[in-house]
Amino acid sequence: MALFPDPFDTLPGLQQALDAFRASSWLGASSSSGGAFPPLNVFRKGEDFVIITEVPGIKTSDLEVQVKGNTIRVSGTKAVSYPEKASLHRRERLGGRFDRTMTLPIEVDADGVKAECRDGILALFLPRAERDKPRLIRVA
Amino acid sequence: MASSQELALREKKELAAKEEKTVPGRYYIPYTDIYETDETLTVVMEMPGVEKKDLGVTLENDALRVDGRIDFSRYEGMEPVYTEYNVGHYTRSFTLSNKIDQEKINAQLDGGVLTLTLPKAKDVPPRQIAIG
Questions:
Q1: How far is B36 from chain A (nearest CA, A)?
Q2: Which of A48, A52, A79, B126 is the most buried (most CB within 10 A)?
Q3: What is the pLDDT of residues A87-140, one digit of tens each?
Q4: How confident is the model over B8-39, as pLDDT tens digits?
């Protein structure tokens, strides 16, 4: 938190903080990130991590989240439909399949992962595995 | 529609405002579908992160304006380590070419998608004017 006084005090603060970590090197060279959609933001919250992504209009039944080791996979289908007899004026929303995987440079406690979907935002709470947590070493 | 197609990644469209906002921060333009049937005009907008209470829809002189604010306090205590998109409020306005029955507008917000159903006003039948 030392980088910004209080990044979440104002919206520009948050926007600036999000910009600063645009495709940061945190995932490292070893990142085996597959797929492009949906875009993911990764946050640290205390010792744990949170992945947030925007999934507007995607039904939770059409959304699948898998965790294996430290790899997270988000896949599913986004359906966009119109009534049969409608004449389309604008069509900007896109539907289709998606399959995204991301390998994190931390160890995740797969049993403790929680997924929450609210207002078109999917949040994955990833507790850091106990053995991966930093240990305090006392200097003798 | 074409659900077998792979979804491509799109950068969010930022609003290049003609008029400046009084509150600082970036605004984004929500992806919108508009379609028309015999009875209604439907506007579908994607505004992930917007709650019902933070949404404003106004229709004035055929100008439809939608404002959605995100609650960024949800990000409290979180420190970004890797990001691929940014967040911000949403705003967009349209000038409607149809006459709308303003009393019967229906708005639904579900899973970050706003659906506005605007019933077209019934045409006023032409009136015969008797010549005295």
A1: 5
A2: A52
A3: 899 899 999 999 999 988 888 888 899 999 999 999 999 998 888 777 888 898
A4: 888 888 877 666 676 677 889 999 999 998 88
Q: Which residue of A has its CA nearest to B52?
A: A119
Query: Are A87 and B77 an interchain contact pair (Cβ–Cβ within 8 Å)?
Result: no
B38: closest chain A residue by CA = A86
Instruction: Give me A108's structure tokens.
Output: 């995740």
Across the interface, whether the CB atoms of A12 and B26 are under 8 A apart is answered yes
Kindly report the nearest CA distance between residue A140 and chain B, in angstroms: 32
* pLDDT (tens digit per residue) in B68-89: 999 888 888 899 999 999 999 9
Q: What is the pLDDT of residues A30-70, one digit of tens each?
A: 555 677 889 999 999 988 999 999 999 999 999 999 998 88
Q: Residue A1 in contact with residue A46, Cβ under 8 Å?
A: no
* Distance of alpha carbon B62 from the chain centroid: 14
Q: What are the residue ranges of helices labelled H in chain A? A: 11-20
Nearest residue on chain A to B49, alpha-carbon basis = A119
d(CA B41, CA A100): 35
Most B CBs within 10 A among A21, A48, A92, hence the mutation to make, goes to A92
Determine which helix (DSSP H) or strand (DSSP E) holds B93, and give its type and residue range. strand B89-95
